[in-house]
Amino acid sequence: MKVFNAKNGHGLNLKSEHFSDLSVLYEDFSFTLKDVLKEFSRSDILSALRQHRIDLPALIALLSQEAGTELEAMAKRASEQSLRQFGRTIQLFTPLYISNHCINRCVYCAFSSKNHLKRHKLSLSEIEKEAENIASTGLRQILVLTGDSPKFSSVAYIADAIKILSKYFSSVGVEIYALSQDEYKQLADAGCDSLTIYQETYNKSLYAKLHPAGPKKDYAFRLNAPERAARAGFRSVNIGALLGLGSWQEDVFMTAIHAEWLRQNFPHLELGISLPRMRPCYEDTKEATGGDIDTFQVQVVSDRDFVQALLALRLFLPEAGLSISTREEASFRDNLISLGVTRMSAGVSTAVGGHVVDTDDNIPQFEISDTRSVDEMVNSILKKGYQPVFNDWFGRY
């Protein structure tokens, strides 16, 4: 088996002070990976699947073109592995957008500062109304989202929101702009126990093109955010890349390495990985956006590619949670349950508020494909022979 000459992986040392120190080794990785992925044979894939613990060369094999012909074998092992680790359970949560003010100019996002949409921010009383409504569905896990705007979504404002939500939910997570360690500590002290943050793409040059302005353009600061949250006392960290921005194999590989680095350096951390895939979003006219749309073309990630990515991650990281969002269609999400998914969202709105507080000009961050309510999601999970889990008891006891 020919492999990429990387000095990392299971059984090898991934110790470094910051993940960004290690990621420098992969700045030329996309050029190497493109060639290496063509070199694997069917016997290489089957040999990789026979490993007790999938190592780095085997991970690369499972991301190769040839592995796409062995999805059934990969799925069988992934399913068995997930049942041993997690049983037949699916954690349920929902996101709550509390502000869409943003000073970043991400070329693929509806909340980008280049888009002249109506901006909204929930008051603390509105946040409480949203919390009451969501809690009435039985959900006890919630994810708070904001745009990147320290002026309108300050750390103090987010901390106040967390304190309110902690009265209703056993687990309160955040998916917000990258913070310092001290700022994450403020949120942890307020009751936040988990961070979700996507690097979007690990390709540094592509990242620069997609984030031309705003604080988010600082690649390394965002890359090291998960470790700052871990050091600040967060119990759980969820990472990932937005599939469709660049090469899905490259981004899935780097997501896996990032997760493994976190596992080795923070053994107490509960790790999760998400696989968001590009969806259509609101965008102003070309004149209003300054022509940013011309700099970006979505890379098609087929359902088959998506499944291969999910299976490779499940096999390489057997203890990590895997989340699938409502970006994916309902039937597709249901079919992924038995392949290693452990966490799913339900009753979702990607507009600010959206459950109680809503207006006609409240533009969502992106279009969702699975619009099922919490009850509908529960019924679908039960039909698949799995148990929906509402509470994250570990987060409170």
TrEMBL record:
GO BP, sorted A to Z: thiamine biosynthetic process
Cofactor(s) for this UniProt protein: [2Fe-2S] cluster; [4Fe-4S] cluster
Matches recorded under InterPro entries: Aldolase_TIM (IPR013785), BATS_dom (IPR010722), Elp3/MiaA/NifB-like_rSAM (IPR006638), rSAM (IPR007197), rSAM_sf (IPR058240), ThiH (IPR012726), ThiH/NoCL/HydG-like (IPR034428)
GO molecular function: 4 iron, 4 sulfur cluster binding; iron ion binding; lyase activity
Listed transmembrane segments: none
Domain called Radical SAM core: residue spans: 88-333
Keyword terms of this UniProt record: 4Fe-4S, Iron, Iron-sulfur, Lyase, Metal-binding, S-adenosyl-L-methionine
NCBIfam families named among the record's database cross-references: thiH
Protein name in the entry: Tyrosine lyase ThiH
